[in-house]
Design brief:
By secondary structure, this protein is α/β, with parallel strands linked by helices. It is built from five helices and five strands, in the order H-H-E-E-H-E-H-E-E-H. Strands 1-3-2-4-5 form a five-stranded mixed sheet. It starts with a helix and ends with a helix.
């Protein structure tokens, strides 16, 4: 999978057209990957560890992060955590973020991460702090 190509393969399009095209293709690409899209706004925090990662499909850095996570997940038959991905453009306002990751506000940059243990939110972060959390968990960088 190459999430990065959602933006880089369409360089002949205007930036707005590129981003619309990437958003249109994002769910299908997630379905073909080792990652899982958040199935609905009613995020069910299951038993064990669950991660919600909110990304911006228009961000090349976020798409590169998804490529790294996809590669990692595809090498492991069963991850010890449930991980869900969600496109920030599906969220109507910054205050709606609180429905997904309670207490994350103010949040100004993707990616955004929430980590639950047995249904209880244990950690949340955004921007570079979220990347640090992911790196600590998965040694991505």
């Amino acid at each position: 999978m190459h999430f990065e190509r959602l933006l880089t393969s369409q360089s002949y399009r205007s930036p707005g057209e590129q981003q619309r095209w990437a958003r249109d293709k994002f769910s299908a690409l997630l379905a073909e990957s080792s990652l899982e899209e958040l199935p609905s706004e009613e995020f069910v925090k299951s038993k064990g560890r669950t991660i919600l990662l909110i990304v911006a499909v228009y961000s090349l850095n976020d798409l590169r992060l998804l490529d790294k996570l996809d590669e990692l997940c595809s090498r492991q038959k069963k991850m010890a955590v449930g991980m869900y991905i969600y496109d920030i453009e599906n969220i109507n306002s910054q205050y709606d973020l609180d429905k997904f990751i309670p207490g994350i506000l103010p949040a100004y940059q993707t990616p955004m991460i929430g980590i639950w243990e047995n249904g209880e939110l244990k950690k949340s972060a955004w921007g570079n702090d979220a990347l640090g959390v992911l790196n600590d968990m998965f040694f991505l960088i």
